[in-house]
Every structure is written in structure tokens, then in C-alpha cells.
Description:
Blueprint: E1 4-8, H1 20-25, H2 27-40, H3 44-50, H4 53-56, H5 59-79, E2 86-89, H6 93-100, H7 106-122, E3 129-135, H8 139-153, E4 157-164, E5 167-173, H9 174-186, E6 191-194, H10 207-217, E7 229-231, E8 236-238, H11 241-253, H12 258-267, E9 272-276, H13 281-289, E10 294-298, H14 301-316
Parallel strand pairs: 1-2, 1-9, 9-10
Antiparallel strand pairs: 3-5, 3-6, 4-5, 7-8
Amino acid sequence: MSNIAFLFPGQGSQTVGMGRDLAEKFPVAKAVFEEADDALGYSLSALCFDGPEEQLKQTEYTQPAILTVSVAAARVLAEHGITASFAAGHSLGEYSAHVAAGTFSFADAVRTVRSRGQFMQDAVPEGKGGMAAILGLDAARIGELCQQASDEMNCIVAPANLNAPEQTVISGDAVAVARASELCKEAGAKRAVTLAVSAPFHCKLMEPAADKLASELERVIFNDPTMPVASNVDARFVSRSTEVRDCLIRQVTGAVRWVECIALLKEAGATTFVEVGPGKVLSGLMRQIDRAQTMLNVEDAASLEKTLAALAESKTT
């Protein structure tokens, strides 16, 4: 039984040039990009490989782009005989995890996340919402201070990404996010960093997006996952097709409970974690959550070789 967990990144991991090396060196990866281009009706591959960066940063393009690179990397791993026993993805990455688990087709997933990105972008007028990373303060205390700021300002702010014990992202109306950031600093937070995001993700302001996504997901055919996939919103494993749609809808307005998802994977027996897709954001979070864990990544041929070598060595020791 494999003790490998695949972790799939979310928005913020994108860079111009991502996936090019995989597509040039592995036909199975090139085929994923071609499938994405066909499903979307435009050249997502060109956007990933050549930019422009400003377009790649727009949510409706970012989400299918990261999904595509992640699925390409997962299929290259599969071609090399590397499979996982568990999967988890950060926000958007939960879709990549479900593609890897066979829960739905890649073509359906890439079309759905394009719509998801559009819905999330359109849910709140630009400038009205905001997000901030709070560093060095307990997540439960941050939740209390968000509630205090919400009450004071009569608008919404709440924890959105529980990324690491010392890193929680808050989301909501810009004025309430600013007030909550002040309160957190007064309570002893090391830093409160306003994030350059286009919308306040994972809070109640995203309800219009969740409603539209629910209709979109009605058209998707779901299968039982071939491996347990950790649900962001509940921090529990999803193993039946009937559960997936509801988890993905609630994920839009609910917090990403990443620390608890990693704990869940460890409890289930995962001892090696592989970040599958662009960047090393999740590797960085793992260092903050539990430095003792073996963390590898695959985003290009060089990182693939390192990961294959590390996995081969762990089998012989």
C-alpha cells in the first residue's frame, strides 16, 4: 500500500512558463494541454507558456491554467508508476485532486473551474472586498477578532484559509478586513499583510458564486473517487460521488481548513507528500505545519527526477 499523498496547489501558484517543460518532454503532458485548449476553445497552453502575465493573473484564466499544469504533472507521475493513496488540494486544487482520483473528467473540470473563476470574480464589485494574511496569531483568536470587526463595521470578515498554525488568511468586505487586521495586530499578531487579490474568496460574500456553481455542477457526471480526497470545507475524506458536489459548492463560501486536512492525511497513514503542480506554496506551508514530513514536488522535468530518485531511495531504506 502506497503511503504517498498528492497535494495540489491553488490560486497564487501561477507563473508564466509553467507546464512548458513538461509539455515539451512528455507526450502525456502535452496531450493534457491539447485537451484543455479543445475544451475551452482558446489556447490555454499559450497563456501558460508565454503569458501575458496580467491575463494569467485573472481568476477565470488562473484557475483552469493551474488545474491543467497540475493534471499534466499527475499524469506524468502516473506514467512513471507513481500513484497516491490519498489526495488533497488547496481551494481550486481540490478539483485537481478529484481529476487525479477519477471523480470527474479533466474536460469537465477545466470548463467548470473557468466558470468558477468567472463567478467568483463577478460576485463582488472590484474594490469592495479584500483579503489579508495574519501571521503569528492563533486561528481561534483570529476568528473571535473577525467576529468583533464584523459586529463593529456591520459587514463581513471571517477566516478564509487556515494555512498553517501561524498563518491564517481572512476575507470579506475591505473595511472589515482592515479593521480585523488592526485588531489582530493589537492582539499580538506579528504581521497583517493585505493580499493583492481580485475578490474576497472563501467568505459569505461569495454566495452568488456558490449558487451559480451549483447549477454548473449539475451538468457534471461524478464517479466515486479511486482514492480518498480530503474536503477543504469539512477536513474529512470524501469517498462517494454523491458527496462531492455539495463539498465543492460549500467550499466557495467556506474556509479552507488546510492544517486539519494535513492532520487527516497523516492520521490516515500518509508519510510522503508530493506537491503536484506549479510552484512550492504547499511545500512552504508544510514546513510551517510539520517540518518532520517528507515533502517533494513535481512541476517540471528536473523536479520530477528529484522526486523519482527520492521515492526510489525511500523504497530501499
